[in-house]
Hints:
Belongs to the protein disulfide isomerase family. One of its GO terms (cellular component) is endoplasmic reticulum. It comes from Drosophila yakuba (Fruit fly). About 40% of the residues lie in helices and about 20% in strands. The protein is of the alpha/beta class. The protein has three domains: about 35-135, Glutaredoxin; about 165-265, Glutaredoxin; about 300-405, Glutaredoxin (3-Layer(aba) Sandwich), CATH 3.40.30.10. The protein has a five-stranded mixed β-sheet with strand order 1-3-2-4-5, sandwiched between helices. It has a five-stranded mixed β-sheet with strand order 6-8-7-9-10. Strands 11-13-12-14-15 form a five-stranded mixed β-sheet, sandwiched between helices. The longest helix has 20 residues, at about 330-345. The protein is globular, with a radius of gyration of 24 Å. The termini are far apart.
Amino acid sequence: MFARSILSVAVCGLLLSPLLPITRASQEEEDKQFAVELDPETFDTAIAGGNVLVKFVAPWCPHCKRLQPLWEQLAEMMNVDNPKVVIARVDCTKHQELCATHQVTGYPTLRLFKLGEEESIEFKSTWDLPAITDFINKELGAPAEGDLGDAKREQVENVNLGKVVDLTEDTFAKHVSSGNHFVKFFAPWCSHCQRLAPTWEDLAKELVKEPAVTISKIDCTQFRSICQDFEVKGYPTLLWIEDGKKIEKYSGARDLSTLKVYVEKMVGVPLEKTAGETGDEEEAIKEVAGKEEAAKKLAPQQLTGEEEFDQTIAEGIAFIKFYAPWCGHCQKLQPTWEQLATETHQAQSTVKIAKVDCTAPENKQVCIDQQVEGYPTLFLYKNGQRQNEYEGSRSLPELQAYLKKFLGHDEL
């Protein structure tokens, strides 16, 4: 029998109803492991007792490893007393027959087993907290609108308000997996980092009444793997991260006023002004807006929907990256693709460097029509005609050399 969990974390947007009790894999892992570990002996009992969302994994799978912190956060939120859905996992390297029975052909596979239904439902959207909770709400039903207030308030409560969060390799993934985060990647010996440090602390204090964002930092000399994953090549590097995904690198001025304007723009909420702020803020706003406008013109074009895609490839040269936000190879290519767009547009403005998110519902048909079978896929189009898939090196010089072949002259 399962032992009842004593968790008391509120779940945003979900009703709670009786379901099977929760167990832990071991006493030592109790603080970190919230997902229920299932095996052939406990699986049928679990799904017979209520709704269960199961992650089928292989420990060696890199995508499974990336999903792990988010999965534990989801389990911590939802595996409360009398939950409406239990978050669980099955190790397919240990229980191959069980995984084969449930048609697991790749890792990770997420399946929702609804109480009283024989067929499970596979989750096929992006691996982020909003998408997964929306999936659960859609399949199991959400509470009435009037019941959401307290849960939402507790969910967005930010215990780190007013201070810089010092992140480590153990805490980074879970911390940034949901919400907005402005993160400073630094080295203690870096003089620019040392000069920024007091301003970074002041920025956190200024945002004490803004729960929609956290200000944090991570020491790249101690936690190199995290910094390598986010392709940090200099110090300090300031990245805006939303729901675990890098949105953009901040390249503006590092004074308090300009940093506040940037956060205000990214969050979309005017921040409370302090007595010390003057007309210099208006100049900072103009400076940030000008840099953003210039950056937009040089950045890869984000294509949405069939109509915009068809218009983009119709005339001239269009080099397009088809990707998924969760794809590690796509994330690795992202800064090179941005640099390719910047240098190409500066030298040859008629060439279009663009990208298509194949996980977005409005782009699914585009990716099907273009026969995208993996991520990232790079196709070049000349006057609407698709060329053979680019399969060369993804370094900047090689990508530029490939473009030159179709331009017929050396303008890149």
